[in-house]
Amino acid sequence: MKTAGQQTFCITGGCGYVGYRLACSLHKKGAKIILFDTIPPNQELPEDIVFIQGDIRDYAHVEKAITGADCVLHLASYGMSGREQLNPPLIEAVNVQGTQNVLKACIELGVSRLVYTSTFNVVFGGQVIENGDESLPYLPLHLHPDHYSRTKSLAEMAVLNANGTALKDGSDVLRTCALRPAGIYGPGEQRHLPRIVSYIEKGIFRFVYGDPCSLVEFVHVDNLVSAHELAAEALTSEKEHRSAGQAYFISDGRPVNNFEFFRPLVEGLGYPFPKLRLPISLIYFFAFLTEMVHHLIGPLYNFQPLLTRTEVYKTGVTHYFSMTKAKVELGYEPQEYNLDEVVQWFRSRGHGKKSHGSSLSRLLRDVLFVSALVAVAFSFLPLVGS
C-alpha cells in the first residue's frame, strides 16, 4: 500500500470551495492531486497540481480525469441552494448521471477507493430530528421538497451499493463510503455566505422565523476537509477498510439556532440583528409561491428566490445528528471555530455598514416589508364563499 505522500487523489468539483481546500491540504501532505471541474480554479495552483477541465456528465471526460488515481473524492454536484434548486434536468444529470459515470470509471480503470460527499438531506425533509444517527432510513424519495436532495439520495444509494464491486482488472474491489455534511462555512465560502451578506446589506434580512429553540448544525470547511481525509484513509487495508459501505454525518458537533449562528456576522458587519419573528408556516408558503413564480417566468428571467421551501426547512426546523460513528470509526474530532474569520474576510473586501439610518426609519421599513410579504401571501388564498 502506498503511503499518503505517494497516493494520487482525483477530486471532482475540485475547484469549488471545499474541493480546493481539500486539494491544498492533501498536497501539503505530499499527495499528488488531480482537480476535475468545469471551470479553472480562481486561485493560483501549485505547479504540480494537475487541473483537468471537463464535464462530469461526459463519461470520456470523467475517464480522463480519474486515470491514474488511487482514490476519488467525489464532491461535484449541482442544485444545492437558491435558483440552482429549480433546474431539475441539470440537477438530475450532474448528481445522478455524473455519479454513475464516476462509479463506472472507477471500476473500469481499477480505482479501488471512492469517498462521496453527500448531505444531511438524504434523511431530512422537514421533520424534527434530534441527535439522529446513521441507522435512520432514507427519506422516501417522493417526500423530498427539492430535486437536489432527492438526487443526492439516489447518488448516495448508488455509491454505497457499489461497495464491493469487482474492479475490471481483477486487482481488487471498489470500496466506497459517503459523508453527510451539515451547512458549510468558513472564510471565502462562495455559495451561501455571500447571498446572506447580500440580504443583510440590501435590508432584506429584517426578520427571523420559526421556533427560537430550533437547532441545526454547521461544519467548518477545515473540519470537513479532515473528515474527507480520514474517510479515504479508513478505506485502506491498513485501516481494515472500516469505512467501506458506510455513511457518516459530519458537523462541528454543536447544534445551534440557525439565526443565532449568524448573529456575529450580522452584528460584525455593523447591522442590527432582527427582533421580528414570523411563523415558519408563513415563510414556507411565501417560498412555495416564489418557486411557482420562478417556474412560470424562470425561462425568461432566472431570478434569485429569497428562499426556497427546502431552505426554510433547513434553517427553521430542528435537525441535528450524533458524531459518534464518525469519531469511533474515522477518528474524526471536529475543531472549534467561530465566524470571526468570516467577518474579517468580508470586511477586508469592503463589506460592512457605511452609515446608520434612524431607528424610526428602520422600523418603518420593517413594517412595510412584512406587510408586503403578508399581503402577497394572502392574495393567493381563496376568498371566503368563492
UniProtKB/TrEMBL annotation:
InterPro entries: 3Beta_OHSteriod_DH/Estase, Lipid_A_modif_metabolic_enz, NAD(P)-bd_dom_sf. The keyword Oxidoreductase applies. GO terms for molecular function: oxidoreductase activity, acting on the CH-OH group of donors, NAD or NADP as acceptor. The keyword Signal does not apply. GO terms for biological process: steroid biosynthetic process. The chain crosses the membrane at residues 282-301, 363-384. Keywords: Membrane, NAD, Oxidoreductase, Transmembrane, Transmembrane helix. Residues 11-279 form the 3-beta hydroxysteroid dehydrogenase/isomerase domain. Belongs to the 3-beta-HSD family. PANTHER family: BIFUNCTIONAL POLYMYXIN RESISTANCE PROTEIN ARNA, SHORT CHAIN DEHYDROGENASE_REDUCTASE FAMILY 42E, MEMBER 2. This is Short-chain dehydrogenase/reductase family 42E member 1. The lineage of its organism: Eukaryota, Metazoa, Chordata, Craniata, Vertebrata.
